[in-house]
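Researcher: Re-running this chain for the archive, since the previous output was lost when a drive failed. Same request as before.
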Amino acid sequence: MAAIDGGGGTLSEIYQRSKKLLLRARDGIERLERLENSASNAAGLDSPELSFDVKKDISQIQSLCAEMDRLWRSIAAKPQRDLWKRKVEQVAEEVDSLKDGLDKLLMRNQRRMTEAKERAELLGRASGESAHVLRIFDEEAQAMQSVRNSSRMLEESFATGTAILSKYAEQRERLKRAQRKALDVLNTVGLSNSVLRLIERRNRVDKWIKYMGMALTIIILYFLLRWTR
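Model: Regenerated structure tokens:
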């Protein structure tokens, strides 16, 4: 039953893609944490790009979860349906955990850069070194802001895709209900036609019985009159 096909492949194929993306996203977060904990964070200037890649993977996994959630509900056999329901829920829980971890890490980095910038400004150094440090923090802060903006755009795109899939499922259910109602109406019409034909036959029989009774009555009266005379 896992071979049910969606727009992006079978349920099994989508599940495998989501697991690979989970591994890549988890590895990306671990790299970000190592950069955060590194004593010399010169390589940390590359973290905005890495953060954006991890956020993109998380949004893609969430989209795959929405697709898998639609597909497992179409499985007819209950044991298979329950099995895939648990698998999809596990992937959804893991990606939510990764998203929370990434959000907390980005917040810590933003707070760290803000504190460092405030310390540099408080020192009030007019040297070119101080200006250079401030410029580096400004550029990194702008990069992190760009990551947050991109993340927000990805989340909005994911929400839009989820809404479209939900509307598609609702429309399909409405079509199914309309089809069942149409079949009920057709069955009712067929039954009504059968009843009308039965009533017409009964009326014809009643007419013949009435005419035969009238004829028999006339014959009996005729013989009674001849007999009394």
